């Protein structure tokens, strides 16, 4: 198969606003190194990590909610998820669905032609469980907002599904994040899980994956999106931020809060947790700075878990769930790669319910 030397790519040139994403029609096509594969990208999902990395929101100098725009000050030493600098220019995008078209040394050529989705966590092959040796696709190396992309062979996960490329590109980041959170919180069928931001990509995944575990699920979402959220199967849907959350919940006893929202409403979520309850977090799109009463934390025997780097087995499990039809995609909209700026603007404005995908 003859491959072009150049490709179309949306390249992030530095921290800042949407203008930092620049379309190139003649960007050098990458070649797979030893242990890597080359994927012809069919679709690539858009996630908060793409927005936050571009804007520099992960830096401790930023205390505002995720806006997607430029911030007055972004620390040079900690602007990424891992608290380290990022190298520009960078092709972002972690959630590829596509086909392997070439392999590097040491990779079985029989993999050429495989349909795959990507595991975004880049691990040390000799020490895969070491969180300090991890990187993220589209952050520590170029990702999928392009016609072609390379990744470690182990990170290109084969999948057999009737779902479309765009539908499959919704799973990797959002659903692995959600499954990682539920795993850290040890959610079982005995739990009732409260999910703020249930209309978002991770929120919708949390609803489905918690239900898959047999848990009872209470979703919080803006009322305009309740019909969409209802299709995911929660037991109850409440407004995004009820004035009196305890009253709105009625007799429901919340044992787990699975949160990617944070912000000024955060203390309300903690206040309604049952004694011995668990709070798990993998985001703070409404703001990272919260009011925290330590007395609530220790007097009620609560457990807090942060969740970022996931176990290597999570993506393998997700593929099994997808192939068995146990979870479904929440595809909100598809944009051509040339309109990635518009896609991110819509994503930031929460114009859609679910995940947004771009196609080369």
TrEMBL record:
<keyword id="KW-0521">NADP</keyword>
<dbReference type="InterPro" id="IPR020843">
    <property type="entry name" value="ER"/>
</dbReference>
<dbReference type="Pfam" id="PF08240">
    <property type="entry name" value="ADH_N"/>
</dbReference>
<feature type="domain" description="Enoyl reductase (ER)">
    <location>
        <begin position="16"/>
        <end position="358"/>
    </location>
</feature>
<dbReference type="InterPro" id="IPR013149">
    <property type="entry name" value="ADH-like_C"/>
</dbReference>
<dbReference type="InterPro" id="IPR036291">
    <property type="entry name" value="NAD(P)-bd_dom_sf"/>
</dbReference>
<dbReference type="GO" id="GO:0070402">
    <property type="term" value="F:NADPH binding"/>
</dbReference>
<dbReference type="Pfam" id="PF00107">
    <property type="entry name" value="ADH_zinc_N"/>
</dbReference>
<dbReference type="InterPro" id="IPR011032">
    <property type="entry name" value="GroES-like_sf"/>
</dbReference>
<dbReference type="GO" id="GO:0016651">
    <property type="term" value="F:oxidoreductase activity, acting on NAD(P)H"/>
</dbReference>
<protein>
    <submittedName>
        <fullName>Crotonyl-CoA reductase</fullName>
        <ecNumber>1.3.1.86</ecNumber>
    </submittedName>
</protein>
<dbReference type="InterPro" id="IPR013154">
    <property type="entry name" value="ADH-like_N"/>
</dbReference>
<keyword id="KW-0560">Oxidoreductase</keyword>
<dbReference type="GO" id="GO:0043880">
    <property type="term" value="F:crotonyl-CoA reductase activity"/>
</dbReference>
